Write the structure tokens for this entry.
Amino acid sequence: MVEAVEVILETFKVVPFYRRDIVIGERRLTVLVRDFIDRIILATAIALGENLVTEDRELHSVKGIIEKTYGVKILRYVDLVKGE
């Protein structure tokens, strides 16, 4: 178990969800997204300027607004593998 956590920490950038920009972003997203965890994930992607890969229907339902407002794309896994 410890080894698995170490690999995750070495492989992925771990971003605290309580960062000020993420908390502020999460609050702004309440008008678009109902689920708190989804808002935290989306706010983190926005704060980092990174596209988000998800299968979440609610997030995909607002992807046009997110892309236009924040410049962050919301993609599905299939979007990543289309060219293969």
Observations:
- The beta strands are 52-53, 74-75.
- Residues 36-48 form the longest helix (13 residues).
- The two ends are 34 Å apart (CA to CA).
- The CA atoms of residues 32 and 65 lie 9 Å apart.
